[in-house]
Amino acid sequence: MADNRVVQGRMVTPGKLAELVEGDPVMDAEAIADAERDCPECGGDVLSVGYMPSVTEFVTGFKCQQCDWKATDR
Ligand SMILES: [Zn+2]
Q1: What is the pTM of this model?
Q2: How many domains does the chain have?
Q3: Range of the domain at 26
């Protein structure tokens, strides 16, 4: 599963990463990508993942690999 990445010391799938950002399980998630930005909290590397929290919505989520910081493009 090359799509899995380490976030805060844990391996996560795209769906799990989207769930971490959203706070709830999501319907579908795309592959994890490196966001071209640093975490505003700790300066760590930020990952991005596109996901569908519902059938009518597509969101890009961002999550720091090292701390609890997360955001979406909502
Ligand atoms: Zn951070």
Answers
A1: 0.93
A2: 1
A3: 5-72
